[in-house]
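FORM 7B: Structural annotation worksheet

SECTION A. Query
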Amino acid sequence: PYQPFMEALDFYTQETAEPVLGRLSGELVRLLPQLAERCPDLGRPISSDPRSEEHLLFEATASWLGELASNVPVVLVLDDLHWADKPTLVLLLHVLRAAVGSGEDCRLFVVGTYRDTDIDRSHPLASILADLRRLPVVERYPVSGLSEAEVAQFIATAAGHDLDEETGVLADAVYAETEGNPFFVTEVLRHLVETEAVVRRDGRWVVADPGTLSVPEGVRDVIGRRLSRLSNAANELLSVAAVIGRDIDVELLADLSDLTESTLLDVLDEAVAARIIDEMGADHYRFSHALIKATLYEELSATRRRRLHRRVAEELEKLRPDDVVALAYHYVEAGPEGGLLTRAVRYSLSAAEQSLAARALADAERRFRQVLEVLDEADTDDEAPQLAAQIGLGECQRDQGSPEYRETLLAAARRAHACGEVGLLVRAVLGSTRSFGVVGVLDSERVELTRAALETVGPEPSAERAKLLALLASDLVFENRYLQESQVVTEEAERIARRLRDPDLLAHVLVRTGFSVMTLDRLPQTVARCEEATALADRSGDPALRALARYFWSAALLAAGDLARSRKLTEEGVALSAEAAPSVQWIMQTTAIRLLALDGRIEEALARNDECWARGQDLGEQDASSWWAVHIATAASYRDEYDLLADQVGAFASHFSGLLIWHSAHAATLASAGRHDEARAVLAAHRASIDRVMVEPFPACGAVHWASIAWYTRDREMAAAVVQALPSHRHYWAHYYLGVFMPVCGALALCRWVLGDLDTAAELFEETDTELRQAGAVGLQPLWALRHAQLLAERRAPGDLERARELSEKAIAGADRIGAPAIATKCAELAARIGS
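SECTION B. Predicted structure
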C-alpha cells in the first residue's frame, strides 16, 4: 500500500540534505518507517482511531508535496496505475484535491499512466478516474499505439537508414500484427534480427526471404520464441525468478537454485544481454517487462508452480522473516496442505494487521477477506484465526464507512463468547461502534454482548473493563428505563480510569459517556467534567478525541446558558476535526449548523444541512437522516411552522421510542396543530411525566415541550408541573445538541401565562428577550417577540399595547429576515386585534 508515494519519499529524503516535509511530518513515518532514522527530530505519529490516523497520513502526504511544490516545481510520476491498490489510489485523489485547493503557489505536476484494457467497472481505478474527471486541473491524454507511418519511422531509426520497398514490406507486416504497440514492435524486431529473418548487408537491413517472412502472433508468442533461444539453465532459473516476482533478489534466487555462484551469474548476464531482465543495482534484477515475467509464470504447470511457491516461501522465511506480505502470498499459493495452511493463515493475518497499522484500510480489508477464504477451503477446528480475520474485516468496514461492520463484529463477538476467546470478544464488542454509535437508539444486541464481555473480564479494575462500561453506559442512556443504570455504570468506568492513572483512558471514558451525564440537576458538574475531558484530550494530541470533547463541552455550556463560549468551542471542534476521520468531521460540521440557525441564517442552515446529509450518506453514517430531520424541525420551530411536521415527528418518535423526549416533541407538535386530544393521548400512551423527561440526556427539552403543550392546550396542571420543576434552572437553555430550542425562562413565561399570573409572565418574557439578545439568537427572536406581544395584548396594562405594537413590528422585521411568513401573518392579526 502507498508504494509509489513511499518510493518517492524515500528517494527525496535520501537525495536531500534538509528535506521539506510539511506540517504533519511525523505522520510520514507511517509511510516510510526509516524516515525516523533519517530525520530524528520528527515527532511521533499521533495516536487516534484508525480512520483518523489514515486521514492524518493523507493530510501529511498532501502537505509534504504541497509545501515542497510551493518552494520548487515538483514532478511526481506514477507508472502502471492499473496495478495500484485502492489505498494508493485514494491517497492520489486526496493529494490532487489538496493541491487544487492550495491555489497557484502549488507547482505540482502529477503524471499517471495506466492501461485502460486492464480496467473494468469493478477495478478501484475506475471509480477514482470518475472523481479525477471532476477536478478542473486534471487532463486525460489517450496514448494510442504507433501509426503505420510511425512504425515505419521506428524501423527506419532502428535500421539506421530510410526504408526501401523491401523493408517497407517489413514495416507493413510488423504494423499489421502489432497494431503499433511499442513494446510489441520492439520485441518483434528483436526476434526477427535474432532469428536472422532480417539481416544487415552493406550497412542496410534486408529481409532474408520476403516470401517466408513470419511475424509471431501475439506478444506472448514473440516472448516465448525469444525465451526459447536462451540456454536451458537460463530458462529454468528465470522460471524460478518469475515465481519470486517481477523484482529478483539474487540471494534468494541463489538459495533456490542448484547452480554454482559463477554459473548463476553467467546465466543472469545471458538474460541481461537478451534484454529479458535488467540489472537495477548490486544483487537486484527486474524483469524488463511484466509480460515477460507473466509468460514464464504461465508456462509452468500448476504442480510445478505450487511447489516453487513453497520453496520460495521456505527460503524467504529464513532470509526475511519479517516480510510477511511476500510470505503470505507465497504460502497461500503453495496450497492448503497441513503446516502450509497454518503458515499461510499466520502470515496473511500479519500482513493484514500490518496494512491496518499503516492505515491502508482497503488493502487490509482485502487481506482479511483472503484469510477467511483460505480458512473456508480448509478443514480446521481452530476458531481463533477465523475470529481474528472476521474482527479485522469488521474494523476495516467500520473505518471505511460500510454499514456491514456492525453485524460482522457482533457475529464475531457471539462466536468469541461461545468458544471462550476473551480477548477477541472484548475487541469485537469495543470495535462494534463508531464515535457515538447511533444516537437515540438502544442497541440491545450489543448491550447483551457488552454485558457478557464484562462478566468475562471480571470485576477487577482494568482498561478493558473501563472501556466496556463506557460503551454500555453510552448505549443504555438512550432508553428511559435504563437511565439510572447508565449513570451508575458511567461512575464505575470513570472511577476505574482515575484509579489506573491513565490520562488517555480517562479522556476516552469521559468523552464516550458524554451523553449519560448531561442532565439539568448536575449541569455545573457536567461543565467541569467536560472541561477536564477537553484538557486531557488536548494533552493526548488525538484530533478526533479533541473535537468530540468539545462537542460535549459546547453542549454543556449551551445548556448552562453560556452561548458565547459554546459557540467558540463548536468552532474549535470543527477546525480540529479537519485532521480527524471524515466521520468526526461530519459530526462537527453537522453540529455547527445550529450556529447558522441561531444567527437567523435559516436558508443557509438548511442548505448546509442538505450538504451534510449527503456527506453522511456517502460515509455510511446511520445518524445522517435523523440528524438532518432535527435541523429541519428546528428551522420549522423558529418559523412557527412546527405544526406542519406533527406526523413526521410522530414517525421519528416511533423509531427512537426509548426516550420520552421524542414522544413529548410529538405531543407538542400535535398541540401546536390544534390536535389537543391526540397530544394528550401520546403522553398517556407512554406514561410520560415531567420527572421522567427531566433526567433524559437532552437538557430541559422535555420540560420545554410540556410547557408548549400546556400553553397550546391551556392545561393548568401541566403548566404547574413545569413551574415546579424548572424555577432553579431559569437561566439554562433547552437544546437537542443539533438544534437550540429556547431559554428555560421562556418556557416558564408560557406556563405562568397559562396559570393566569400575567405579571410574572411578562417579567419572564422580558428576561427571555434579554437572554436572546445577549446570545445573539436572531433566529429565535421573531417568534418570542410575537409571543411577548400576544401576552401584553391580553394583559392590557398601561403601556402594554404600545409595547405590543413595538414587539410586533420587531417580529415582522425579524420574520422577514429569517423567512417566516407564518409569524408575520400572526403579527398582522395581532395588530388588527390591538387596533380594534
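SECTION C. Observations
The chain has a mean pLDDT of 90. Strands lie at 74-78, 108-112, 198-201, 204-207, 247-249, 277-281, 284-287, 733-735, 740-743.

SECTION D. Sign-off
Analyst initials: ____
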